[in-house]
Every structure is written in structure tokens, then in C-alpha cells.
Amino acid sequence: MEMREIEAFLEVARELHFGRAAARLGVSTPRVSQAVRALERRVGGPLFERTSRRVRLTPLGERLRAELRPAYERMERALGEARRDAGAEVLRVGIATSLPGEAVDGPIRAFERTRPHCAVVRSAHPNTDPMRWGGDWPVDVFVGWLAVDHALIQAMGFDVGPAWWREERAVLVAAGHPLARRAAVDAEELAGYDILYPSSAPEQLADSWIPPATPGGVPLRRVPRHTSASLEEAIVLVAGGDVLHLTIAAVRPDHPHVVTVPVTGLPPMICAPVWPAGARNPMIGEFARVTGAS
Fold it and tell me: Any idea where the HTH lysR-type domain is (predicted)?
């Protein structure tokens, strides 16, 4: 297999969307499609089911992803260590899958201009991943969504860089849901509906994203239905029509049966770089400084 085929396959498997995968990889959508088709010819069967409405992995694709993803991440780490041993500067940057690819390009390119000899190696991960990695981080710094008051994550042993931007809250609902036609939804109204809860993240951190109660003190009906931490799975669950996903306004799912509705009454989220306190890569501080000012 060629590396471009593996990278394209894994990115489409993560995004379940060829256009977004291409944006993540910095190549054209036809190039990603060609690479996936080449890999399908190599393995002798389809890896994705493609329709006009969605892309999803076949059972063969699921098995191949399960085998390739750990090996690919080990290889990326090995290459990064080899570059460091050779004296080259390398910064492994994880990007939350809910971040638009085009939105992160500007800050990262600003950093690359200031450090042309530092190789930036990007990878995409669900926003909950860093909190599950513990002390074995596969990246140097992760850029994702945090509560405006991020004292909790600092207490968990992380440093937080300057915010790239702030985003107001929103909720994903099925197109036929009673809230779908609303211009905005007050946070108090959310108490009447089931809301997805990211049980894979530490409870206190998950509570900072999906609060246990509305600002007025009414408990929210939080349901842990995820089998993975991916935004794509959340979108599929919402499309079923009986559950909501509380997120940020920047999330605009490419799904004909899911819409984004703004939520008022909740504090915004920030997009910011996060890394373990005491991390030794000297490029992390420079990355946080330059990208926070871009």
C-alpha cells in the first residue's frame, strides 16, 4: 500500500465525508477519491458505502480501519522521534474533528511562517480524545473546544494557550424535530428533551460541555448513547429524531436530515491549544503564542 492511500482512507473513515477529508489532508477531493479507489482495488472489495446522502464504512472497511489506525499512529510517532533525534524540529498538532479544516489553516500557517524549519504534523481526533490519552499523548499539542472557564482542565494537569476564537452554543436537531424551525432555542427549553452525553470523557469535563442542569436549575436529560466519541456518530443519532446534541454554532453537519439551531442562555466555548503541563517540546509555547495572536 502507498502512504497516500492509507492516509486518505483513514481520514475519510474519520470524517465520513470526502470533501472534509480532503480539506484535512490539504489536497483535492478527486485525489482523495482516487486514493481510496486504489486501496479498494488492492484489498479486493469496497471500503465505503457511498450514496448521495452519506458515506459509511462497510464491514470490510471497519476491519481495515481497526488494523491500520494503531499502526499508522505508531509510525507517525516513530517518524517524529526520528526527526527529533536527527535534530529537526517537529510539532505534532492534534485537531478536534468538529473544527472546520479551513478555520485552523490560518493559525497553523502563521506558525509555519515563523518557524519554517519546524515540521507540523497534523492529525484529527474527537474532542474527548485528549482526556482519555492520560500520560500517553500521541500529539504535542491539541486544539479543541473548552469551556470559557478552563480552570478545571488546568487542575487536571494541562496548560491552555490563548484562545483562537469563541463560539456561541447551538444544538443539533433532526430536520423534522419541533425545534428545527426555530431561529434560536433558550437553554431552559432543552430540559424537555434527551441530550447526548459524552460518557467517554471524565465526568467533570463532560459536565463543562453538557451541564447537568439549565441556568435556571432544571435538570437536563443527558443520555450516554455514543459507542464512539465521534461527531459523525452524534449526527447519525440526532438524525434518528429522538435525541439532541449540544454543540457550538460552528458545527454545520453535511446531512440532509440534521440542522443546527443557536442556543441562548449558555456561556460560549473557546477554541484553544491544550498540552500536558511540563511538556518538553519547546515549540509548544511558540505555537500557542503565534497562533493565539493570528
Answer: 1-58
What is the radius of gyration, based on Cα positions, of the chain?
A: 19
Task: Report the 3 state secondary structure along 146-208.
Answer: EECCCHHHHHCCEEECCCCEEECEEEEEECCCCCCCCCCEEHHHHHHCEEECCCCCCHHHHHH
**198, amino acid identity:** P
Cα torsion angle, 22, 169, 294, 279, sign: negative
pTM above 0.85, yes or no: no
Q: Where in the chain is the domain with CATH 3.40.190.10?
A: 169-267
- What phi, psi does 217 have (nearest 5°)? 95, 5
Q: Is 79 exposed, middle or buried (0-12, 13-18, 19+ CB in 10 A)?
A: middle
- The architecture of the domain spanning 169-267 is 3-Layer(aba) Sandwich (3.40)
Q: Is the pLDDT of residue 291 over 70?
A: yes
145-184 pLDDT, tens digit per residue, is: 888 888 888 888 889 999 998 999 999 999 999 999 999 9
Domain 1-76 falls in which CATH fold? Answer: Arc Repressor Mutant, subunit A (1.10.10)
Helix (H) or strand (E) holding 84: helix 59-85
Could you tell me the maximum CA-CA distance found in the chain, to the nearest angstrom? 59
Distance between CA atoms of residues 246 and 222, nearest Å: 10
92 neighbors 139 (Cβ within 8 angstroms): yes
Sequence ranges of the chain with CATH classification 1.10.10.10: 1-76
Scanning 189-293, the segments in alpha helix (DSSP H) are 203-209, 231-239, 283-293
